[in-house]
Amino acid sequence: MISTRAFWLAGRPASGETTLAVSSPWTGQLIGEVSVPTDEQVEEAVAAAYAVRDEFAATPAFVRAAALDHVSRRLMERSEEIAQLISAENGKPIKWARGEVGRAVSVFRFAAEEARRFNSGEAQRLDTDAGGQGRLALTRRFPKGVVLGITPFNFPLNQCAHKVAPAIAAGAPIILKPAPNTPLSGLILGDLLAETELPAGSWSILPVANDRMPGLVQDERLPVISFTGSERVGYAIMDSVPRKHCTLELGGNGAAVVLADFASDEDLDWVAKRIAVFSNYQGGQSCISVQRVIADAAVYDRLLPRIVAAVESQVTGDPSDDRTDVGPLVSEDAACRVESWVDEAVGSGATLYTGGKREGASYAPTVLADVPADTTLACEEVFGPVLTVLKVSGEAEAFAAVNDSKYGLQTGVFTRDLQAAFRAHRALEVGGVVIGDVPSYRADQMPYGGVKQSGVGREGVKFAMADYTYERVLVLTDLAI
Q1: How far apart are CA 76 and CA 140, in angstroms?
Q2: Catalytic residue among 89, 160, 246, 287
């Protein structure tokens, strides 16, 4: 019999009156039940976070750093157990789940390091004008208040880490709302945080349903919202609270550009392999997975069959099997949506080279070309194992094709031309340009986010800490003058 998992209310385990069932996307079997907080318990968590905000902001850096170091160590110690849990509730192949745990270990380690050095202060002399004689400005950063962190299902541990770790490092209390499909991985963080000496109320993990989110979003005691998820929901949140600080990471339709100079057989084999892996990893359910390949005409005819062969070599199946590259999507509904988009594109004239088949929650890795520009697949984020290939003539046309999108998260550019790399950096309307690889590379300490409809603000530990805080100036006066 499966026991009901408690949630975390102001640093202690608690149970509500209802439960949420968590099932495997692969088998459909129940893998856990999570207790859901009542409205009164949500109010208690928010009130506790609001009440402790000044105390937590004043907590010494070594206390916060020690807690973050502890979570990092414990994640490492329990890494295989947690990876198995991620794979079970998310459907992510176990090898990718292990990688996710490793990234979360690093996120908390980076946060511990930043907690020790963040906010050391910046001194600025003011006697550059006569009115500033004898005065010195010291600028430090202070938390804006309690953070509401809202996370998606696709990285159920690491996305939670990217909300929780920077908040603790900055001294900002946090209310974390994990995705209803995958709450178990986020609640694991509560197990580890409960082993630390952080003050009660400085963190809560509340697996509430999405339809209860507006009340949290609009609560004036939660002045900072950090959301990762869909464009529709993210901008609805921002529109509903125009006076709050919102960080939105909303995804994209990542492009991999292959320029004419990247033309040797070895180069194209490398491109095809990387594209095949990173258009399908996590079942394509990553906001920086490869959705679009934009290839120069000089390499297109030699590259396309390589991509098709590499995609067909991806191993699909049981996510608990070490050999599996591509598991199911998070739900059958998600797979049906992907199926409908591909069917629409093929019905509108696109050429299907491989894939295009659904079985339950699984969708076969798929490659299409000649996709009409007005189809849903060409315009939106597919969030599935589907890849489109486009032929262009020259660098300028390739960069224009990247920018011909409402999204702008990251782009990969395969080139050996250093000047082309600099031109790409100037021309591409995205948050990150990766040279020599796919757009799917992310280091958890670097600034990460997009432009246009891909969101506002930046994740990455130090950059999130800056988002959660504001500058406050202290002017010191030499009274002897």
Answers
A1: 33
A2: 287
Q: Is 287 a catalytic residue?
A: yes
**What SS3 state is found at 59?**
coil
Hey, what are 143's tokens?
């938390």
Half-sphere exposure (CA, 13 Å, Cβ side) for 294? Answer: 26
pTM equals 0.96
The span from the CA of 305 to the CA of 286, in Å, is 24
H or E element: which one contains 312? helix 297-312
Task: Dig out the tokens for 225 from the structure.
Answer: 């919202």
Q: What tokens were used for 133?
A: 């004689």
Task: Express each pLDDT in 358-368 by its tens digit.
Answer: 999 999 999 99
The residue from 89, 114, 231, 249 that is catalytic is 249
Helix (H) or strand (E) holding 351: strand 351-354
CA dihedral 27, 29, 35, 38 (to 10 degrees): 80
Q: C-alpha dihedral over 125, 131, 133, 134, to 10 degrees? A: -90
Annotation says 249 is catalytic: yes
- Reduced to 3 DSSP states, what percent helix, strand and coil does the chain have, rounded to the nearest 5? 40, 25, 35
pLDDT in tens, 184-219: 999 999 999 999 999 999 999 999 999 999 999 999
